[in-house]
Design brief:
- The protein is built from 3 helices and 9 strands, in the order βαβαβββαββββ.
- It is an alpha/beta fold and 190 residues long.
- The strands form 2 sheets. Strands 4-3-2-5-6-7 form a 6-stranded mixed sheet, with helices on both faces.
- The protein is globular, with a radius of gyration of 17 Å.
- The protein starts with 16 loop residues before the first strand and ends in a 6-residue tail after the last strand.
- It binds inosinic acid and magnesium ion.
- The site of inosinic acid (IMP) has 19 residues, from strand 3, strand 5, helix 3 and strand 8.
- The site of magnesium ion has 3 residues, from loops.
Amino acid sequence: MESTMPDFREVPFDARLERVLFGPEEIADRIREMGTSITRDFGGQPLTVVTILQGGALFMADLIREIRLPLKTATVSVASYQGTESSGKVNFLEKSLPELDGRHILLLDDILDSGRTLNAIRRRFFEDSRPLSIRTAVLLSKRIERVEPIEPDYVGFEVGDEFVVGYGLDYNGEYRNLPLIGTLRREFIR
Ligand code: IMP
Ligand code: MG
């Protein structure tokens, strides 16, 4: 069957979008590049890719298929956002951590904002487990001053200080299924 994927830059997925920042092909190309770098950097090491749910689910699914290494996957669930505002507190939603002992960890998230989430998880991993190392990869990084300093090892794209949705990123639980990353029109943000 022929693919009839429309160009989402010309035809917005839905009228609630203000602006498309990155379309499906741009995202796929960038993730392929990230996978190539990761394959090179982690060659021959015991790698576990851990993603932060729910936002990082799509990123992990696409990224691991661009990494040409034997690896394991794991997930962690945290919650910090309500609407478009970070609550400032990172809550772990499960009692136990994945098995990380003796492994190099690549911790993924959809977007780096204040830095609290990645820092809290990294801290917890080192406190409660014995990983060989923890590196971090984010699909998006907001160009803002971090509340908690962190320099991710891999960054897909930089964005400004605006609230974005799509490709895993939500607004009140919706829009994760958009195959692109964009901003919402003001009237759809309450
Ligand atoms: P941080 O802890 O402030 O760095 O925030 C990271 C988390 O906040 C991410 O895992 C996202 O779930 C969420 N987040 C931050 N900015 C956005 C955004 O623009 N859209 C959707 N979610 C966001
Ligand atoms: Mg998140």
